Amino acid sequence: TRIVHSYGRFSDPVQKDGTSIERQDKLAEEFCKAHGFTLSDLHLLDEGKSAYRGDKQKALNEFKRIMRAKDGRIKAGDILFVEEMDRLCRKGINATQDLVREIFDHGLDIATQHKIYSHKNKDDLMQVMEIVWLAWGANEYSKKLAGRVKRFYEHAREQARKHNTPISSGSTPAWLDRKGKKDEARFQ
Fold first, then answer.
1. Is it the case that residue 15 has pLDDT exceeding 70?
2. How far apart are CA 157 and CA 145, in angstroms?
3. Hey, which residues does 80 pair with through a beta bridge?
4. How many alpha carbons fall within 13 Å on the CB side of residue 13?
5. CA spacing 20 to 30 A to 85: which of 36, 101, 142, 165?
6. Could you count the other beta carbons within 10 Å of the beta carbon of residue 51?
7. Among positive and negative, which fits the CA dihedral 10, 174, 145, 183?
8. Which positions ≥6 away from 177 have C-beta within 8 Å?
9. Residue 144 near residue 57 (C-beta atoms within 8 A)
């Protein structure tokens, strides 16, 4: 039976209180059950880590380190399961292709809840184009969200300066004490 290593990730620490982890774990279990595969006890989870910026995905980097070590914990023929391809990487086409190529070159397949991308088909034009398309879409979506957040905070800072009030969204640092509500709030 093939071994499936599940990798889960969510970007915002607030999601830890939601169902993101449970949903991704359940999908991995259902995938294994549907295909007769065995779920690995290697639990890979990056909590509150963006796949859009930097190399902050410690669990994914650990997976790659173990894969490279060739110590038998991860071996050719195994499968890396992710809810969707954008859980792996949102850094764009080249970064995604590099990551996928590294996994494929070690003889592993990558599976989502909908499809298995085979290392044996790494030169198949349709598979390559699908992965490229997904990588492009994930990166564009992340750029759009980052732009929205940036515009929101620019507007909030502008309003705070204009009305001489603190920014009313977000959490207050522990060393500040917020007094008052909304437009009348002041920090001490």
1. no
2. 18
3. 5, 110
4. 0
5. 36
6. 26
7. positive
8. 187, 188
9. no
Residue 93 structure tokens? 């086409």
Give the tokens for residue 184. Answer: 């009348």
> What pTM, to 2 d.p., does this model score?
0.74
Tokens 């991860």 belong to residue: 74
Instruction: Round to the nearest angstrom and report the end-to-end CA distance of the chain.
Output: 62
Cα dihedral across residues 135, 136, 141, 144: positive or negative: positive
Write down the pLDDT at residue 92: 82
Distance CA 176, CA 30 (A): 47
Angstrom CA distances, 9 to 19, 106, 130, 151, 167, stand at 12, 22, 21, 26, 30
Listed residue (126, 86, 122) closest to 107, CA to CA: 122
Q: pLDDT class for 119, splitting at 50, 70, 90?
A: very high
The pLDDT of residue 170: 60
The per-residue pLDDT for range 5-14, each reduced to its tens digit, is: 999 888 766 6
